[in-house]
Amino acid sequence: MEPGQIVEFIEVKNFIAGLVTRVKASKLLVLTETNREMSVASSRILHQTNPGLDLSRPRAELVQSLKEISSRRASRAMEINLLELWELLDGEGEEFDYRYLAELALPDDTGPDRVPAMLRAIFADGLHFKMRPNTVLRQNAEKVEQITLARIQEEKRGRELMEGASWLTKIWADETPDYPDCRDHVIQTLRDMAIYGSDASEYKWGQKLLEKAGLGKDPYKPFYLLVKMGEIHKHENLDLYRNQIETTFPAAVLSEAENLLRQSDWHEENRRDLTSLETLTIDSSGSGDFDDAISLEEKNGCVILGIHIADVSALVRPDSPLDIEARGLGTTIYMPDQRISMLPEILSEEALSLKQACVRPAFSVTAQIDEFGNVQTYEFFPSLIKVKRQLSYQDVDSTVNSDPTLKKLFAISQTLKSQRHAQGALIMPLPTLNVYLVADGQIGISLINWDNPGRAMISEFMILANYLAASVLAEANIPGLFRYQDEPSQRLLKGEPSEFNLYDCLQQRRYFNRVGWGLDPRPHSGMGLEVYTNLTSPLRRFIDLVMQRQVKSIAAGNEPEYSREQIEELLTFVEPALRKAYDVQSRRKRYWLLRYLEAQSPKNYEAILLQSQPNRPRLFIKELMLETDIAVNSTERFSPGQEVMIKVKRVNAREDILKFELV
C-alpha cells in the first residue's frame, strides 16, 4: 500500500473512505472524508483503489474528492438488489469473490466504484451475505430466516423501549397514562430486576428502559415503580420470590391431607392410653400448632416426667406428597407479618395439634428423674393423650409459684439445667428480640427472656427429650441426624449463669464453633451433652419428623425407618432448605425492625462497645439486641465494655440501610 491510494474501512459501524498519506510498517496514516487524520492498521482495509489522488493538492480539495467518491459509491450500492443476487446464486456454491458479485450486480459499470459499492451494499444489508477478508459467504436460507426474525425482534424491542420508557416516565410522575402494548413485558422485566437485581434475565434491557425514562440506575427503582403501578405491595417480601418459597400448598398435597383425615382412626393403632394424665401444653399466646405437651406423675416416691410429641409420622408417610413438600421447605417459617407452615393447617393446627380437650396421637417419652436431675429410666412409645390445660408462657410466669404442678415442673427444669451446666454447657442469659405487628398496623418490639419460668421449663424438657432420642440411636448404633458443636476455642465464662454479664456473654459468642449436623454421634458443647438431635417439633421441622420416624421404629423393635444412605441423602436436601428458610426469616425480621425504627421519633439507645476498631468501633444495642458499627473521629478513644449513647442517623428498610451515630 502506498501514499495517495484511496482506501475504505469500517469505523464505528460506518463505511469510511480515506486517503493514505503515509505508510509505517503495518500502520497507515489516513485522511478521511470527515477531514480527520487517523492511524489505521492495514489489516482493517477492506478495499483500495488505484490510481488514487495527488497528495500535493490542497487538503480541502482532497477531502471534497473523498466525499464525492464516497457519495457516488453509496449511491451505486443502493442500486444493488442483494435479494435478487442471493436467489440467483442458489446452488452455485457458498463463497464468492467480491469482484465477481459486483460484475453480476452492476454489469454496465466497469469503473473503480462497483467493487466498493458491492462491499457497502453487503455491509449495509448484513442479511444475505457475510463479509470475509477476501471473499463473501452466501448465507443459507435457514440463517437468513434466523437473522430476519432477530431483526424483527430487535425492532420490536426498540419500539417497546421507546413506548415503555415514555410510560414509566409518566408513572413516576404520578400520572395515569394508558397501558402500552408492551405493558406485560415491562412489568415482568421490572419484577425480575426487583427480585434478582443484576442476575435478572433481561437486566441490561431493563437498565436501558430506566435510563431512557430518565430514572437513572438506582437498583431499587424497579421496586418503587411496581409499587406505584399497584403490581406489588410496598411491604412485599421479595425474598420469598428470590428463594422460590411458595406460600400455599399444591392441590395434590391438600387433597392428600384431607384424605388422610377421613381414613385415620387413632384407636386402631397399638397405642398406650394416657388420656387420663394431667397433660398440659405451654406455648406462645396465639399459637395453633401445639406439637409438645408435658405431664408429671409421682409414683412410689419417684417423679415421672412425660414429654409427649405430636405423632406426625402416624399420618405423613415417607416420600408421600406431604413428606416431599415438607422436605422442600424444611421448617415452618415464622415472620412478623406471615407464617409459612411446613404442613397444611388442617394437620398442623387441627388433626395433629395437641389441642385442649382433644384426643390426639403422640409419641411419648416418660423419664424417671431423681432429685439431682439424673434420669434413672426412660421409655419411648406411641400413645394417645388428651391435653387438660393449654397455657401460654405468660400464664405460667404469673402462676408458677401458686400452682403446685407448675412449681414442681419448674423446679425439675432448674435441676436439669444445673446438671447441664455442671457438664460444661454454656448457658447464657441472652434475651431474643421479638418483632411483631399489631391489629392496627403498628409495629412492636419486645425482648423474650428465656430465663422466665414458662420458656425455661419447656426449653429444658425439650432438650431432655432430644438428648434421650439421640441416646437411643447412639446406643443402638442406628444412623440418625445428630446435632453437634465442638468446644469453643476459648472459654471466658466462669461461675453460675446468673453471674454472667452482658459484655462477657457477647464476647464468649465470638469463640463459639459452628453448630452442625452429622450422621454420627458427637458432643454438643453448648448443650453440655454427649449426643443431641431434634425430635420435639415434627409439625414445624422436617428433621424432627425424620428423627421421630427413626426413634419410633427402634422403640417398637423394628428395623430402622431409614438407612445411613437415606439419612445422608435427606441431609443434602434439608440443610440447604433450612439455610434458605432461616435467611428469609432473619431478613424479614430485620426489615420490620427497620420499619419500626423509621417510624420512631428521635431516640437515644444505650450501646456497649464490643471491639474498639480504629475509626469504626463495633457496638451492641441492648434494647434491639443488635450489633452495629459506627464511624467516629480518629481522635475519639473507646474501651471494650464501655457504654455509649447512640442514635439512628439514617434508616431505610427497603434498601436495608441502618446507620447510627454517637449522641
Structural description of this entry:
The chain has 18 helices and 25 strands. The protein has 663 residues and is of the alpha+beta class. It folds into four domains: 134 residues, no CATH class; 92 residues, no CATH class; 264 residues, no CATH class; 63 residues, Nucleic acid-binding proteins (OB fold (Dihydrolipoamide Acetyltransferase, E2P)). The strands form seven sheets. Strands 9, 10, 11, 12, 15 and 16 form a six-stranded mixed β-sheet that branches. The protein has a five-stranded antiparallel β-sheet with strand order 4-3-2-1-5, covered by helices on one side. A five-stranded antiparallel β-sheet has the order 23-22-21-24-25. β17 and β18 form a beta hairpin. α1 crosses α4, α3 crosses α4 and α5 crosses α7. The longest helix has 36 residues.
